[in-house]
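Forum: Protein Structure Q&A
Topic: Joint prediction for protein chains with partners

I've read a bunch of threads here and the consensus seems to be that you should model interacting components together rather than docking separate models afterwards. I'd like to see that in practice. Below is the full input, 1019 residues plus whatever partners are listed. Could one of the regulars post the assembled result?
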Amino acid sequence: MKDILKAIGRAVFKTPLGFLVTLKYIFKKPVTLDYPRKKKPMAPRYRGKHYLERYDDGTERCVCCGLCAAACPADAIYMEPEENENGERRAKIYEINLLRCIFCGFCEEACPEEAIFLGQEYEFSNYDRNSFIYTKDEMLVPHPRKDNPFKRIIRRVRRVYGVEDTK
Amino acid sequence: MADKQNPETGGQATVTLTIDGLTVTVPRGYTVLEAARSIGINIPTFCWHPKLKPVGACRICYVEIEKFPKLQVSCATVAMDGMVVHTNTDQVKNGRRAVLEFILLNHPLDCPTCDKGGECDLQNLTFAHGLDDSRFAFQKYRFVDDDMTTTFDDKRIGPEIILNRNRCILCYKCVRANKEAFGEYDLGAYERGNITEINAAPGRQVANPFSGNLVEICPVGALTNTDWRYKIRVWLTKTTPSICNFSSSGTNILFYKEDHKNKIYRVTSRRNDDIDDGWLADITRYSYQVITSDERLIKPLIKKEGKQVPATWEEALEVIKKRLNEIKDKKGGVCIGGLASPSLDNASLYSFAKFLRRTFNSNKLDYRQDYRMLPKDTANNYSILASQPFKIAGIDDSDVIVTFATDLLREHQNEYLRVRKAFNFKKARIFVANPYAVKTADVAELEMVYKVGTDEIFINAVCLAALEENLVACPDRADLKKKIKPSSLKDAAEQCGVAPETIKIMARALAEGKKVTFIAGELLTRCRDREIIASALCNLNRLFGLNRKGQIAVLARYANSMGAVKLGISPEPVPALKKELEKIWSGLPDTEAYNTDTMLVHMKKEEINGFIIMGANPVMLYPDREFVKESLEKLDFLVVCDLYETETTALADVVLPLAGWAEYAGDYINLEGCRQHAEQALKPRFEAYPGYEILEMIADKFEKKLFSSTEERESEIDRLLKVDTTLPWPDGFVEVKTAEIEIEKDYPLALFLCDDPHHCGHLTEKANSLVNFCGEAYIEMAEEQARAYNLNEGDSVRLESPIGKIIVPLKISEHLDNQVVLVPRNFTSHPVTSLLMRKRRIDWVRISKVAE
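Posted by a regular:
Agreed with the consensus. Here's the joint model:
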């Protein structure tokens, strides 16, 4: 009987004592984020989804030389070159299969034109596997002159939040 | 050269030197570079090419030779006895690195956009020797033209060539090859010093028939092809060795292909010194586009109520079985004939012959789709001449070369280059005899343009010159005079319109030559009186003993013409072959044998009712188009297999898609009788099948299997190819008949049908690159003639013969100078064969200007 009372007493008086640890954290800064409303800032050299750069005048930097595809250990990059209206070389098709990609960053390193970079975006989710093959249009940064600023902001917001373009 | 002594005269024929500690003995006259390569020591080069004379322009091949004060360029230093050469010392490496640094001085760093990236000699060598940084900070020199439309520095200098002068390292390989090997002067080096540039000759395009080679030998990306430009990187492609299907030499090629896309991207040469020396004609280089074109036949077509509708293979085969069986039951199998293209591989041709001979007991088959009035069997002088052994490499060391009745540049480009090579390197004496002036004459000692229709009289004149000058020691030479007409050189020379003195010079050369190569070509083969001319040539051969001290041959025209002869595709095979065929098949059909010509005649009489055409296009190529068309229309049942819809498939009841030569593995026999294997590069596109599989499928329908296995087929072919088909020369001199030459009163000009230098047969107009060189038919004539008719380049000309007329643009020729006009036959839009009469020797035409 005495033992039972002792146990009850311990439960009543000692358990809140255990909750003290928990209670202490209410007043501390939380370690988790209010995802997806808030996002964690990534390290500057984080290797997320790829993007293709442009020159200041808007022409694509990528000349489709094929070095990224050659360097890619996962064989995730496929490209086909073509001539643009000025007779210069550029990519007709530039695709990265993000399901294959291992985000090693070799493509970025191999690129002689400083065209491809691994960005900060890390959210990849889609409804089918084919959507993971990112095309050139999806990866190119917006044209600085052709887009109006409003659209550019929307595009950036979409990029950041990974919202699909409704086509 | 004084040191080049003959071993027989006492001097040494070889030299011994030490390279990197290895002792090597090479023939005298070898350069240090060649000596080093012969023992597997690699010395880098830019400007050196094995088939060109050395210049020492790039200086990357530096080696250190003991007792020489400085580094020497190994490509231009002749190896000498006792030389001690080092190719890998620090001094050599430093020298090469310095050379590279100088080359890179003005070389742009645009490797990412350069098509040569990945196979660039400069890139590789820089990687191996060079520094990763440049010490020169100033602006690189950039070539910019005023009229440059692109922001890029690329400039189109020919239909298929793009030049980027910034990348050029001035090795001069392209200019030298163009001049030395091809005899073309449309590309040159201009200006001097730092701003030297390679460029097309002012106002001209680099459009010669060998222009693709310039791109191939360029060590950097200064010259690039449009067909390969920005298509794919070289490291993504695989190579397949193959054989050219549009030249009878069987030049060796490599297909660059991509398996996932089932596509060929380009063709480069696979050097074979016995055959092609590493040079490819543009036909060979760009004709792969015939296969990759999207206009190909996709499905079998069956004619239903006068219209061809797509069908499945099973349906098509059922129709073939039903209809051919009807004819066989009603009229007998002998009423079924066939025509196969001489560009098909051995297996297809042999299956074709076996199918017709075994299933239908018919001897009505042929492979010749463009030669009028063919001989019936092989017991004639023409067949003897055509069966003689010939070696392409044998042209190189001949000291006298005669080309007779052939325009090598249009027919045998590979041999054309050989003849030039013999002239350039061995100073061979070259004689050109043709009814019209040809480009080969550039290198000729004498060019003899005889009157049209006097081919045999010209040959007789050469024989008579030898007799009158007493040049030959042939024992029965006295007989000859009785067999030929006219009997004196003066008369003969007058008749053929060539000065007797020039004929004497040629006769003397033939008599004195130590090794003579005598080449006859298409103008003899296609001529109605080929037998008469061949008789004259047999006499010539006997008189001068040409086959003993060299070679004399009529060159085969198509990729596997020789294979067709050796496998007995002709109506009457050579006797030796016939015996072997009888053994293999245990009996040959003894029905009447018809060649193409007689088959067409009998079709018109409705004595041949069923016909199978495989890859051939007689409507387009056989003389008298209307006649061929009418004949084929009279047929009850016509099956045509081809890659494309052609004039002939339009008449067919069943059309079957045929696979192109890159789509299956096959053997081809080139004009010298050499059997070569072409590997399969692609999977057959659409629903096409190779010829032998189509025949196998049809034969299966008749429940008469052609072969129990592939091995059986191959072993039968092997047995046949072992048979020596060379026919013996006639005993004694043969009588040369006089040919009757019809003269049309109001038709003053002689028309010669030819192939454009960039085309061959009926398929090449589907290759875009070749069309860029020449996309439509033209009438080529001498400038004087054109002036007489008040015509200018590009004018539309109405060309009329007694039976037809066509309208073609005019092209003024640099070579022609007599009453001859040339029209290429490769274009569907201009049916030239509708002008030709089937039984004529000379096709007389007249021209008039079309009023605008």
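The two ends of chain B are 62 Å apart (CA to CA).
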